[in-house]
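Deliverable D4.2, example record:
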Amino acid sequence: MNKRDLPPFKELFPWWGGDLQTIATALLGAPKDVAPYVSERMQFPLADGDILLATLDRPLDPKPYRPVVILIHGTPGSETGPYMIRMACYLLMQGYCVLRLNLRGAGESRAVCGGQYYAGSSGDIRELVALLPPALTQHGIAAVGYSLGGAILLKYLGEEGSRAPICAAATVSAPIDLLGTCRTLMSFRNGLYHWYVFSRMKREATEEGARLTSLERANIETSRTLWQYDDLFTAPRNGFTGAADYYAECSAVNFLSGIRTPTLLITSLDDPWVPGGVYNGYWRSTKSLSVQPLLSPRGGHVGFHGVGASHPWSDLAAAEFLAKLP
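Output generated by the structure prediction step:
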């Protein structure tokens, strides 16, 4: 998307700087649901017996020929996250049907999933897309992924290439370099962020419904950092030799060159969680006709609370990108 299509992001007072923009996502709040729009629960049984739960929101005034938009949350998160509700409401106003997904083991999916999502969970997206009813996808499928959900979406698109049945996609603050993101979160200045993310990941992975061996549960409970959690639990559970192997194999930056779906990558260079250098470095060395960067100097992590709009700037950009596609 040409940057001239949308005014540059300008921070909303008093949320100045990446940290305050990040925190504002939770503090500013959002509606608890998408009322007055009509919603229904959907279930998607996976091949291994787990079930993904999602909420389908329908617009009051559907616009013809618009694709259904899948929203994918980050970690920790679920279909009820404030940024998920905000974006769903905005898309519903534009006449889109919206499917708010709970990844494997997240939100209400926890009770019906023994497994746990991670950065390599692209196979779950593949199965979900194949299970969508034809009546819902008759005008196509689009997807918007936030944070880790965005990274999973990019991995899926890169693996599928021209086979992906997705007409358009956008990501917001996706950690495309897992090692760099882990190091950043574990830095001294990010101690509170690390505690917030890490403690909720542990709680999510051990809640009722999780299928864990006694060793896995012990490794989760004794881990003290995100690296240890991934090294002792995520990596071995998913066939990797350790955290380094997991990060190297699953980082979305490795899959960007395979993407053939028109995809907008939205991120801020002052994101306190996701280092922006990998985005700049990638586009200095690689040109892609399908993947377009939208890098803002400001915005924080899944923040982008700007002047003159009731919805985050990132959501306006993603919706405009979807609307302009043929």
